[in-house]
Amino acid sequence: MGSFNLKEFLDKKVEEYNRPEFIENDPILIPHLFSDKKDIEIMGFIAAILAWGQRKTIINKCKELIDRMDGAPYDFIRNHKDVDLKSLLGFKHRTFNDTDLLYFVAFFRHHYMESDSLEDAFLIGQEAGYPSIDIEIALNRFKAYFFSLADYPTRTRKHVSSPFQKSTCKRLNMFLRWMVRRDTQGVDFGIWEKISPAQLVCPCDVHVERVARKFGLITLDKVNWNTAVELTDNLLILDPDDPVKYDFALFGLGVEREM
C-alpha cells in the first residue's frame, strides 16, 4: 500500500467514524451531556480517566457520578460543604474509588479558584500557541501540578499517567483530543484555543496499536510513550495540521474488526 493510498483510505474512514452517531456509544458522550465549558472539562477529564473496560459500563459509571453531584459537577466542586462529600462515598469503577474521587474534587476546586479553564493546567511554563507547546512537557508538568496539593493519596497517582513513566498516556491524549480538535462534525469539542490540533499526540490503545502496526505506522516493539510519538509522527505526514483525526479511523477499524 503506497502512502498516497493509505492516506486516501484512512481519510475515508475518518469521515465514516467521525460523525455524531459515534458519540452515543463512546465515553465522549459524558461531556456532551453539558453545555457549560467547566462542566465539559471536568466530566470530560473524569470520563477519559475512567475509560477502561466496557464502554457501556464507563458511560453508566460516569452518569452515576453526575447524579451523585446533583447533575452539576462544576457547581458541586466549587460550592460543596464537607457534608456534601458524603454523596461521593462508595463510588467505584475498576480500581478507581472514592478516595481517588475525593482527591480529584479537591484538585478541581483548587484549580478553578485560580483559573477559568483546565487548559491552563496543561500550559504550565509554556507559552500558549504553535509551535511552542510540547505535549510531552505539558503532560509531565500536568501530573506534577495535579499532585501538588498536600496529602494527596499515593494510590491516586496511578490514575494519572505521564510520559516520564514511559506511559502512552492514552487517556490524557484522548481528553486533549476532545478539548482541542475542532471540525464541523460535532464529536470533538474544540473549546480550547491555546493548544493547536497539530501539537496533539495520538491516543494509542490496543485497537489503535493493532491497526497502526498493520499499516506500518508503528514499528517499535514496546508500547510506551515513544510508540505514541512514532505513530503521531507518521500521522503528521498524512495531515500536518490535524494528525489525531486518524484516531477515529484506527480506533474504528480496530473496534469494528474490519482489519
From TrEMBL:
Q: Which Pfam families match?
A: DUF2400
Q: Which InterPro entries match?
A: CHP02757 (IPR014127)
What name does this protein carry?
A: Uncharacterized protein (TIGR02757 family)
